[in-house]
Amino acid sequence: MAARGRCPECGSGSLVEDAHYAQQQLVCAACGCVLSEGLLTTTYTDEEHLREVAYSQSTGQKEQRSRCLQRGIRRVQDLCKVLQLPAVFEETAVSYFQRALQLPAFHLVSLEKKELLGGCCVFVTCRQHNWPLTMGSICSLLYAKQDLFASVYLSLQKELGLSVPALSLADLVTTHLNSFRLFQPTANVPAPFLEDREKLLARTLGIVELASEAWLVTGRHPVPIVTAAAFLAWQSLRPGPRLSCPLARFCRLAGVDLPPPAHLRLKELLEILLGMASQLSWLRGFRLDKKTVVKHIGDLLQHRVFLLRNAFSQDGEEQQDTAPGQGSPSQDPERACPSAGKRHGGRSLRPLLPPCLIHPRKRLRAAAPSAPAAAATGDEPISDSEIEQYLRSPEEIQAFRKAKGWL
Amino acid sequence: MEGASPLERYLESCSGQDDFSTAPHLFTPMSPYDLELPIQTAEDGVFAPQLNQPKELHTDFSSVDLSFLPDVTQDNKEQNLSEDGHETQEELDGSLPSNEDSGVFTDESSLSDPGAAQPSPEASGVCPPLTPMTPVTPATSSESSGIVPQLQNIVSTVNLACKLDLKNIALHARNAEYNPKRFAAVIMRIREPRTTALIFSSGKMVCTGAKSEEQSRLAARKYARVVQKLGFPAKFLDFKIQNMVGSCDVRFPIRLEGLVLTHQQFSSYEPELFPGLVYRMVKPRIVLLIFVSGKVVLTEVVLLGVVLGAGAVQSLSHGCSGKPLEASQNSLCRVAPP
């Protein structure tokens, strides 16, 4: 079938489509010159003019992924393999990544951010399926700075409109404990320090729950709390040889990083435990301190509901239904009324509140809204003198010019 | 590299991990807890044992020590009930509908609050019979909460409608600073009302720091007057309040993890990133930053109509002393000037 066009060599118009072996060729019937060969079917009108259409201009280009996208998808897949996530996670993460990369907010950012984007998609997928993955672990896998990761994560959440459920603390404890190297005998871990995984896990979970009830978890980074709880649990399971081991050494032996806030969390946990221990009848005789209370953690956890209730005042108001056998009931409310949270011991109890409320940082507050009655409408006249005070006098300008060497 | 080895160990042990998506329920949902407030005492007996179950955040929690259960007797039940309702995540009524905590709260019992928490069923990926959370306008109950959000900052913009020479302004004005390498605008401050303005060479100006809309307008006019006195034909067009930031204190601590479970579609709580919970309320369209201490920051209050403010906050947070709120009718509740 003759196509339109002219042969560039001889100028004849008789062009024939012929197949040379399997390849389609457009040949001039007069001089035999091959005009084009291997034409792919495209929708471009260039084909009519019998010119080869470069692949980058054909529709095939649109179907091919850009190199950036390909690399990103490979990265996401590699991350999923490293984390040993189920296949379903991988598909979801890849689809998020593809969607996100098309948005202008992510298409035109630096390469560094694009790499983080892949990690964020994996992170979001894990969280949506309640797979406990912390930002810290993803950042270490990506060698990324946490604040940059945070900004990419938040913008991803906003752009794609994803709802990400909160991190489940119990799952986090389980996976975090799995990374502790205390369950099998190794070279640098002495025998008395080895522990059974299930027991440690159970007790750590108990301590973490206790911390959560005592307002130590809300608003704080979860990993230091888990580390401190694991330390206390480990110590309490066999206090004899382990009480002398400090937190730093414990983390080194376990092969885990020691996050800086862990010491503070440990202190807070011990304070709560000491408070609870004071309510346990068979411990009242002892003078417990931070070290010795660890031995009794098992008992404290077992009765924690009762102990928490008795050791700490709940509302800051008096509880009307105190323990029975208090004495004359008529006196009770009167005694309880004036002082908040007093118990039969006569001690004043600290309320069970978040630490930020118990130890508020002193802040210099500016005077409370001294609403100037003057600015009632916003349309008051403005005096010239008031404005003049903000303008420089000519002498000042001269001096300033000299000093600055401007203009 | 040392950092990789904990990860490798984690990976090896991950292979033996549970399948999170198919973990079984560990407890049966209770009978539907119809929450016609105030709570009937008959239901308390049913509810009390639930209060003392451990927080079953991970359904594979079979090794938990439940031996403290006998500690709690019926006498202690009332005390439990009048406790802070913050233990939202400890009350595991699997079958409670989730939209019960919208609407009016009477504070006779803090039970109204815990009921809304659905931690473990959601954690296991199995969908409990929850009705979807519909965005509800916070209730305007007749009792006043006494909580009034204080305006902390107002951001407004105005168009001076003339091209400005920033160098000139910086030279002739005492209260201006201009560093073109850092930022392409003059930063000008006045003492009364105590505000800061960013003045751009196109003639647009942003005024921040005022504590009320009128003050913001007055301050913007003063800035315009300064620019006028410097010799530019400045006008005062399109004054518009862009953002208002208020803060308030609800006076009780808030269980953020419980709040994020019940209002999942609106809240975002990332303790690894930020200690507060970001709640994007739909109606009215405000963003609240809620902290565990009970302090709340309300922002992005772009006014299109009447704004309800902190009244919304308390109806969300499961307050123990949940004093019910009315819409705070004060400074946040005004229509923006055109």
From TrEMBL, chain A:
Polar residues composition-biased segments: 321-331
SUPFAM superfamilies in alphabetical order: Cyclin-like (SSF47954), Zinc beta-ribbon (SSF57783)
Biased composition (Low complexity): 367-376
Main location: nucleus
Database matches in Pfam families: BRF2-like_C_cyclin_rpt, Zn_Ribbon_TF
Ranges for region Disordered: 316-352, 367-390
Keywords noted in UniProt: Activator, Metal-binding, Nucleus, Repeat, Transcription, Transcription regulation, Zinc, Zinc-finger
Domain TFIIB-type: 3-36
One GO MF term: zinc ion binding
Subcellular compartments: Nucleus
Family annotation (InterPro entries): BRF2-like_C, Cyclin-like_sf, TFIIB, Znf_TFIIB
Single GO biological process annotation from the record: transcription preinitiation complex assembly
Known function: General activator of RNA polymerase III transcription. Factor exclusively required for RNA polymerase III transcription of genes with promoter elements upstream of the initiation sites. Contributes to the regulation of gene expression; functions as activator in the absence of oxidative stress. Down-regulates expression of target genes in response to oxidative stress. Overexpression protects cells against apoptosis in response to oxidative stress.
Family the UniProt entry places it in: Belongs to the TFIIB family.
Protein name (database record): Transcription factor IIIB 50 kDa subunit
